[in-house]
Amino acid sequence: MSKATLVLVSVTVAAALAACGPPHRDVPAGEVPKLTSLEHLMDAQATIADPQMKKAGAASFTDEDYAAFAEVSSRIQATSMKAKEFTKGPDFDKLADRLHENAVALGKAASAKDQKASSDSLAAMKATCKECHGKFK
Ligand code: HEC
């Protein structure tokens, strides 16, 4: 093994160890139609939504937070609709629709810079992820 290869291997191993949770998949809303599996779609949802859903319950948000919530809103609106192409039945579709509603509500709350409504929408979104995983994952 060359020295360059060794360096590359250690960097890759370090990156793998640093990344906990689902694979990072940074997919802008416009690219969502290109997703080819529910697993990749879910990874994209987690990549954008997990760091923001953690902020549910916070006493205040910054302008950067509201901008990030708006981005979650637009991406999750796209992924929740796309998810129905990988449907597991009517109950699955209902939960996908609910996730879409949660995303719309978050977008409204973020553009109004409404702390309470943003926090509530993030919590509602988290609950929808959890409910669907309880039933279908
Ligand atoms: C409509 C149902 C539904 C909703 C809503 C939902 N999920 Fe999922 N999720 C699933 C199913 C089904 C799987 C298993 C998919 C598979 O591996 O094929 C899954 C798997 C996952 C995975 C594991 C993917 C992997 O790499 O194996 C992650 C991460 C995830 N979901 C994140 C989320 C997040 C974050 C939300 C909310 C923003 C969410 N999901 C909302 C149904 C849902």
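^ heme C complex. Residues 33 and 82 are 7 Å apart (CA to CA). The radius of gyration is 17 Å.
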